[in-house]
Amino acid sequence: MKVTKFGGSSLANGTQLKKVLAIIKSDPERRFIVVSAPGKSHPLDIKVTDLLIDYANAFLAKQETTAIEATIISRFQAMCDELDLTLSMTTIKTEIYSLKKTPLVSSDRVMDLFKSSGENCHARLIAEFLTKNGVPATYVHPKDAGILVEDIPGDTVIKREAYHTIKHLKHHKDVVVIPGFFGVTSNDSICTFSRGGSDVTGSIIAAGINANLYENFTDVDAIYSANPNIIDNCAPITELTFREMRELSYAGFSVLHDEALIPAFHQNIPVVIKNTNNPDAPGTRISASRPLDTQSVIGIAADSGFTSIFLRKYLMNREFGFGFRILEILKEFGLQYEHMPSGIDDITIILRQNQLTPTSEQQLRDKLLTDLKLDEIKIEHDISMVAIVGEGMKNSIGVAAKATTALANEGINLEVINQGASELSILFAIREPYEEQATRALYQVFFD
Amino acid sequence: MKVTKFGGSSLANGTQLKKVLAIIKSDPERRFIVVSAPGKSHPLDIKVTDLLIDYANAFLAKQETTAIEATIISRFQAMCDELDLTLSMTTIKTEIYSLKKTPLVSSDRVMDLFKSSGENCHARLIAEFLTKNGVPATYVHPKDAGILVEDIPGDTVIKREAYHTIKHLKHHKDVVVIPGFFGVTSNDSICTFSRGGSDVTGSIIAAGINANLYENFTDVDAIYSANPNIIDNCAPITELTFREMRELSYAGFSVLHDEALIPAFHQNIPVVIKNTNNPDAPGTRISASRPLDTQSVIGIAADSGFTSIFLRKYLMNREFGFGFRILEILKEFGLQYEHMPSGIDDITIILRQNQLTPTSEQQLRDKLLTDLKLDEIKIEHDISMVAIVGEGMKNSIGVAAKATTALANEGINLEVINQGASELSILFAIREPYEEQATRALYQVFFD
């Protein structure tokens, strides 16, 4: 059994839905379909979810909503017309119109309810479409599917016990069509996952029914070994481990919702990223392990917008609990750090720049300087982190040499070098302007 | 004005004392002499401090002490005979004998008092010796010198206010001879610094009188750019910064007592390491800065006996305060860590192996695993840390490349790589058996 999730662009219009039909028909194992709301059907189009957010905001502001309702309905109507569907449109209209009758309890509850109806309506439409075209399909609401979630509007998480109910979905004879993106709380409120959360629903269903594959259909052929916007005809990655996928979670690898991998990872269900517009492309398979006969480095990821905070104190490494006190202060400032490489008497804290304002940065600087009685503190902005990643690195000597030589040849200074005992990745902190150059240089030595 | 400290081997017998006399005579700036207790005058000899520890233990155990007293006295007597000194011997005998009349208040007080008399007696003897040989000298007890310390027997530290008194030493006409290793508390108890603490006394005096140089005479020509026991005719380091000295503080660079540099560092007084047996050798000068026209790497240090604790948890880097909780647990176990390099979802903790017993290690493993809900924990023993150090690294690109290539060519796997933003050192964790090979390989690329 496979759980097959289709993203918004794969479901944006009738033409796309026909591709989806063909994909589902081509493999009888595809019995659990998780759908997003309709995405952009052309570059200037607006995603239905965004329209619903406007609708919700207008409603909350007690403004006129007729126009926006019409726009939303027209998106579904256009597909029904193109695909000659008659039944679901009535239900969809009723749902969209009835939204504005929602009691104004709390604005984020209202927002979640509105947002969720994009997926919900589309699931109904798609179930009808499949049935009408020789694939008997049943729409199943997340409540009936058993997607029981915590009461955290806009950013909910699944409850452990949910899986006991979800596994019963197996017994459905028909193909099951489940709206992604949201679940239902123990007191029947709708709560959505964070944006892009249909990926999460798919993964939850896959874990719940213990599928042998979770297929995630999107609009790219694969995950690439580097940022394809930087590297021309960048090599696709055919196989990847969950750990590698995580290490590559920097910019350029945001194909999948981060949290979407958790249920699949814990249940050890392979995930495959495929392209609705090119379903014959092998895509990228993400699983617990992969053959390591291939090269040591599988991907190069880079991300900018980091700040490095350098602390020096004479005899620091003799002071018990020094690192602890640093992290106490970071915690006090609500700061999350990424890395903390150290010398004997110095520590560098790498964190996301957007966590600091000039004011809070000044306060942090003063706090660290005085509380820790530092000899020196230096804060540098506009740092990029570049990571080379691969399970194979552990078994091959000289990867660091190859990488640092490539960067040295480009005259790129390494502010920080960081490799943990996993030997799964080596991270380099460099100045932002060199990020693309570094990516190209590393790509060349490891992939060309 | 220079403060000149002589170590135990430089003062082990009459022959050595004659060298010391020549050194003091050769430079009228050498007006503040800090002395250790007599060290080994031949390989099988016993240091006077060790004899005094035996004496103290016998006294505390209420055992017979006549023999050990005689042995101690004979060491001083031999020098007095050789150097034809008459005055101080009486005082020395009285002091050694009177030790056993110490009230048995607390054993560590007794221990400190006994230990301190090695330096104390020797200072008296040396003052007489200098005076008798044309260098008018006065013995000054640490109490009179103003070395006011905290009441921490065996591991005391100087009190801030002490420096106000110490500076008055300047006004002495004669050369001042001060016993190293101990100070006096506000209620007149003797407290010693940790072993080797005469270096600390010298540094304190240098800071107190604001000397323009702190000379530390020992039995090596210089600090070497790598462990001379591993590298044949290893290049000596002529100039070194305080920061570099600290980064090199791993094995093979333990020429100077770690804490000895603090007062000099804070008062910015240059320190020079010189050889009593070869005073014309330039030695090694340690100061705040040095000309960087020389090579990027100034030294290679290595130390064994580390353990690496590798932790992995899926989505670790999204968990706020994760590193903090790790350090909380280390703190709870009273563990001091050296480094903590990290990937996206993993952290490696490098710490000294001797802090853990098989039992405490198992407890730590369980605690980390359960409290942090880790996916994986791996503890590896017998790790060596190898560091390449140099202020010049910051301004020269490709040092990491050179080092990692050298290690790769030797087929040495890098368990961990760690370079902070100081770019003052790069640390590599490798398996212990490769330590010497790694040192040689790095020495070859950076020094041959």
TrEMBL record, chains A, B:
Q: Sorted alphabetically, which keywords does the UniProt record give? A: Amino-acid biosynthesis, ATP-binding, Diaminopimelate biosynthesis, Kinase, Lysine biosynthesis, Nucleotide-binding, Transferase
What GO MF annotations does this protein's record show? aspartate kinase activity
Which SUPFAM superfamilies did the record assign? ACT-like (SSF55021), Carbamate kinase-like (SSF53633)
The EC number(s) this enzyme carries: 2.7.2.4
Keyword hit for Transferase? yes
Concerning CDD domains, the annotation shows: ACT_AKiii-YclM-BS_1, ACT_AKiii-YclM-BS_2
Q: Please name the pathway.
A: Amino-acid biosynthesis; L-threonine biosynthesis; L-threonine from L-aspartate: step 1/5; Amino-acid biosynthesis; L-methionine biosynthesis via de novo pathway; L-homoserine from L-aspartate: step 1/3; Amino-acid biosynthesis; L-lysine biosynthesis via DAP pathway; (S)-tetrahydrodipicolinate from L-aspartate: step 1/4
* Chain ranges of the ACT domain: 388-448
Q: Which reaction does it catalyse?
A: L-aspartate + ATP = 4-phospho-L-aspartate + ADP
The similarity annotation says: Belongs to the aspartokinase family.
Physiological role: Catalyzes the phosphorylation of the beta-carboxyl group of aspartic acid with ATP to yield 4-phospho-L-aspartate, which is involved in the branched biosynthetic pathway leading to the biosynthesis of amino acids threonine, isoleucine and methionine.
Query: Can you name this protein?
Result: Aspartokinase
What species does this protein belong to? Answer: Candidatus Vagococcus giribetii
